[in-house]
């Protein structure tokens, strides 16, 4: 039916708002002088190198783990998956902080155990930390691709005389290339946008320099850098959109049964990764907690974090409804949804820079909590929309038709059929936004009203001031929050699996 | 009561239903059959108001919808049974059946009539295919529509279930005294259930008639070929009969003089021991249980099929004589002008 969906006007307004940062940065940007140009080349080099190393590193770790978790029937299979995916839930600045504090001549290992391990810093350190926290992107996208492949091709290859490893290499991986590529681009995107890790490791990337310029009160230069960073981000997003999707008939995935020796060797490979990415930060923060207690920490930081994040989650859920409906109504709506994804690609530090300027121009907004919440919503709205849309698209479209034919108006059909069936997705989406907002660092640093300290900003102040021990409580709380986020995502995945399986049974 | 006049439906630039008209009497069951993509489901959705029509008008009890002024589905009082049943997964059986009912008595009536009492409070996910089908039917009927639309209601069910449910649904429709349009792609369903049969192809109705007429007097070759297997034997119509390779075939179906083709279904042919006169050679045969299907080669090279009882078996290579069943009046089409 050629009819404009009633959700379009509202969705259009939201989509236009999502583009606001770009407009603001365009107005704000000063023409760069010559000196800046030379420095920019170095920044560009560092940023691209970090993104490239991260992408390669996450493929190297992520693909083998994807094969392991997708095809090998390990004992405690679910635990393997959870542990190997867990680093994704942890913000990498937590890891960077822990690595920075643990290694090196004056690090915790040297102080506590008397063993000096070379320090983890600079480009190599940043790439290592970044890889440890982004390889699950590759693992999860690749795993999803692997699980959708029918095992019969592998069986055919082996009957034709190919060894298992050769058939995985020649028959399976080429068909999972898209999943691998998508995951690697996500990892690169994360490396481009992340502020905390390069800042702590002392690598001059765009995000770190934007913060330096911001602190030097030169918003104009920060805006130029932001725009340049956005061009790179846009390029990566473009590459990702070009990945052609090949759809194969889903079938029963391959299942391999390892001997106990093979299981042990797999564990021996996975253990160091999990130790470094998970046990190290938790261990360091626990050590500090034991040594220094909760000195300097105030409960109000938790409340502030939770309050701002709760507002963000609530608003995102409300705005996600018209957006998701518009996206499902037609191509124009899908385009508007794509526009809101722009906010997701905008690095937090860039979003912060743009909204600081908005605050300076509109004094009624300056230094208000609303501006911070707006930044959260603009960045994380796609999470809520995506979660809602995934649930809503899972609904058989004939259900709404059935309701209409039974005499329900479009409104009644929405309230009685669509909404109850998508409530779970909506709540999950709001919770994701809440958790992401709790952990967000750079935009919070720039936009939080004076005296409004959150867990993330407090952790940052502690790092800047060098009172590492005081990071214990906020660090552990952020780990805990991340664990909740992981549980939420995995429970969603599990439900998806169960629903799928139920359908197969029918 | 339903009248469909000159209705067209377009998806973008593709016309899926073309200038189609028919009327439906009260308590009449119309079967709609046709190949995949012929527009039968689209036509059903257009009648329900789920798809916009681009031309023509559709009129039901107390409403008329045309391209300029579409009536939304909720104002048409039609019922629909969907191919995938479309039961609301978050509601129990009784809440599904009574979805928009203030008085639940009709829901209880149909639930007990269709034998669903024990499943009253079950969620759809727990039901078997046949049970889902009954719930979907109960839901549609309990809302007391003035017309019921069934979109391939049995296509998702096992063959064994189909035969029983087919007549169960028909009895329920007759019990409710409802007119219905039933879309199917199953030939035997199309022929056995309805009062009238519409054969659709490429968005148009090729024939709309009783099932018997559609089968024995197909309007054209498409209908002949779509409903059952068809041998088309070329011949020459002389006025007294039709001269063919199988001899003179007489029929009360008066064709134009000249080249024609006679429709003989495999069941219409009888296979005899050759009495010197060889008309065909057995190419192969397949045993079908109660019947045997022969593939036969005529001297002209034409290949035809004949289905007979298993009493007398011929072997590949045997020469045989063929005749039509004596009382049969086969349909005749003017020959295809196109050279083959």
From TrEMBL, chain A:
Principal cellular location given in the protein's record: membrane
PROSITE patterns assigned to the protein according to its UniProt record, in alphabetical order: ABC_TM1
Any Gene Ontology CC annotation: plasma membrane
Keyword presence, Ribonucleoprotein: no
InterPro entries: MetI-like, MetI-like_sf
Gene3D superfamilies cross-referenced by the UniProt entry: MetI-like
UniProt keyword annotations, A-Z: Cell inner membrane, Cell membrane, Membrane, Transmembrane, Transmembrane helix, Transport
Segments traversing the membrane: 6-28, 48-73, 79-103, 110-135, 180-203, 223-243, 264-290, 302-327, 339-358, 364-381, 467-490
Subcellular location: Cell inner membrane; Cell membrane
GO BP of this protein: transmembrane transport
Bilayer topology: Multi-pass membrane protein
Sequence ranges assigned to domain ABC transmembrane type-1 in this UniProt record: 44-240, 302-489
Claim: Transport is one of the keywords in the record: yes
Recorded family membership: Belongs to the binding-protein-dependent transport system permease family.
The protein's name: Iron ABC transporter permease
Source species: Parahalioglobus pacificus
Automatic annotation (TrEMBL), chain B:
Family matches, as Pfam families: ABC_tran (PF00005), TOBE_2 (PF08402)
PROSITE patterns found in the cross-reference section: ABC_TRANSPORTER_1 (PS00211), ABC_TRANSPORTER_2 (PS50893)
Keyword Hydrolase recorded: no
SMART domains, sorted: AAA
SUPFAM superfamilies (alphabetical): MOP-like, P-loop containing nucleoside triphosphate hydrolases
Assigned keywords, A-Z: ATP-binding, Cell membrane, Ion transport, Iron, Iron transport, Membrane, Nucleotide-binding, Transport
Protein name: ABC transporter
Organism from which the protein derives: Parahalioglobus pacificus
